[in-house]
Amino acid sequence: MENKTNSACQTCAHFNGEGLKQLGVNIDKFDFVIALAGNPNTGKSTVFNALTGLRQHTGNWPGKTVVRAEGAFEFEDKKFKLVDLPGTYSLLSTSEDEEVARDFILFGKPNVTVIVVDASRLERNLNLVLQILEISPKAVLCLNLMDEAKRNSISINTRMLSKDLGIPVVATSARFKQGIPELIKIIHDLATGKIKCKPRQMTRMPKKIDKAINSLSALLKEEFPEITNSRWIALRLLEGDKQIIEALRTDKFI
Amino acid sequence: MNITYNPLSYLLAFVAIIVLLFFVLRPNKGLLHQIIKYFKFNDRVILEDILKYLYKRDIDLQTNNISTLFLDLKYSKNKIKDTLDKMLNTGLITIHEEVISLSVSGNQYALRILRAHRLWEKYLSEKTGYDSKDWHNIAEEKEHELDETSTDNLSSLLGNPIYDPHGKPIPRPIGKSDFLEAIHFTDLAINTKARIIDISKSPELVYDQIIAENIHIGAIINLMEISKNRVVFHSENKEFTLSPAIAKNIILSIIEIDNSDDENIARLSDLKKTQKASILGLSKECRGENRRRLLDLGFVPGALIEINLLNPLGDPTCYLIKGTSIALRKKQSSKIFIKELKHGE
């Protein structure tokens, strides 16, 4: 039996094989792991189906009642594993769905996170987008339901949006299979490092909180040098987020 | 062989059995339940109920003597007398000239029960689907079953909340509770502002009336007139007139700083179809997961909101916020503060 050679990724320090295994994702035969996130009712499943065709199966997240769908697609000789996260309004866990989504993006460290948003309801969808940008450095915005937006006479300046957010933006209408090839190309280019993104971070904060975050994040960087989003974690610690505290304690971040 | 039977008589018998079963098995008032309750009653429960009763009346500035206990509590006079003796012996209460007062240790004990009660209500509100009107009754029973360790565990499970789902403070473990100094309308001078920090739950009729008038804990009021016949005050852009007997149930606290223009605050439940408003914030009564969810859906300060669809039955109402239609019940929309925008704003 041909043993699949280790891809360049698996030998890299940033590869998070262990973390992904814990979350039940088998990455043995794949090069990259892509997470699919977004608000409910944005057409995530349609995008998912458009990308993976029939190569998918559904199950449950380990230990939870939340449904999970996994699929795969190939592009330019690279194999991509696509994990569909539950539709959520935010990552600040108040329900199992949000817990699952956040845990995957935070600890699973997918190579690319595709955020599917509803083009006709951009303002509310941006809540989740901005939250994801704070914890995941590689993301692409999939501006779905463009046909709906057109019907409501909404037009979006995707270039401006991309500049403002610091990540690539692809307009799609998954139902009519429009924009999918562009999306796949962008995912590939992001994953392989061909294009880089500089996601927008929260800069304006009350002075007192800013001071606290600075000192806490400095300590965090000392203790856990691999952490890239120390400011976000510092903020969660100040909020008293039990899961983050537990994760730090059990070395889930390393 | 012809066996004749009258279907009507069988039907009547069936109905009679159903009616009988109803009276026996009815959830709270049925015969079976009463029997179970009777056996459940042990002395500790009675003692704790008396403690709570004394504590609450202390807050309400009412004196306690044996006759009031006999009147208000549903236990037999003998049981009450025996329990009071026990409490006297263990130093939980003192009796001076017919007036019963709680000792320091009695106070602490009562606070512990109150803590268990409010934490359980918080648990019910956040982790279960029980209707809010049931929380108090369920907690009334559960509070006796929670010992100190369980209560502390419950508190950490819920993230050590400071307020119960009604916005009332949950006593801290050392028995200290940050109760603000409680006053009544009769202590207030005309044209002074105060904040409603509590509404007495008994008598139940009075409590229901106050709630029906849409008076909330946390609301800021400005006393306009007080006389033998009525109490008039302004709150949230509305004028309220209550009889002194009812106003007595509202517990207030004077607010030191007079910064916000609280008289012009309105709640989302008051918004009319033709008006537009901007959100000012969420009330303190709105906590935990509800609060988080509302914030995530876009009910943040500054957001524009208007009514999208009205329900012919009155509740829920559909609001247009951040480009989406969200339906809220009156229970939820009454906890959102808004500022009405005049035309052209």
Helix content of chain A: 40-55%
How do the strands of the widest beta sheet of chain A line up side by side? 2-3-4-1-5-6-7
Beta-strand percentage range of chain B: 15-25%
Please give the share of residues in helix of chain B. Answer: 40-55%
Task: Estimate the global geometry of chain A from the Cα principal axes.
Answer: globular
Which structural category fits the helices and strands of chain A? alpha/beta
Low-confidence stretches of chain A: 9-15
Describe the 3D structure.
The complex is a heterodimer of chains A (254) and B (345). Chain A is an alpha/beta fold and 254 residues long. Chain A is 41% helix and 17% strand. Chain A has 10 helices and 7 strands. In chain A, helix 8 (207-223) packs across helix 9 (230-239). The radius of gyration of chain A is 18 Å and the shape is globular. With 345 residues, chain B is an alpha+beta fold. Chain B has 12 helices and 13 strands. In chain B, helix 3 packs across helix 5 (77-89) and helix 6 runs parallel beside helix 8 (148-157). The longest helix of chain B has 24 residues, at 104-127. Chain B is globular and about 70 Å long. The chains are: A alpha/beta (254), B alpha+beta (345). The interface between A and B is small, with 13 and 10 residues.
Give the topology, please.
The complex is a heterodimer of chains A (254) and B (345).
Chain A (H helix, E strand, L loop, with lengths): L16 H6 L9 E7 L5 H9 L3 E5 L6 E9 L2 E7 L11 H13 L3 E7 L3 H14 L3 E6 L1 H6 L6 H8 L3 E3 L8 H13 L14 H17 L6 H10 L2 H8 L5
Parallel strand pairs in A: 1-4, 1-5, 5-6, 6-7
Antiparallel strand pairs in A: 2-3, 3-4
Chain B lengths: L6 H19 L5 H10 L2 H17 L6 H7 L4 H13 L3 E4 L2 E4 L1 H24 L4 H11 L5 H10 L35 E7 L4 H9 L7 E7 L4 E5 L2 E5 L1 H4 L2 E5 L11 E2 L8 E7 L5 H10 L6 E6 L7 E5 L2 E5 L1 H4 L2 E6 L4
Antiparallel strand pairs in B: 1-2, 3-4, 3-7, 4-5, 5-6, 8-13, 9-10, 9-13, 10-11, 11-12
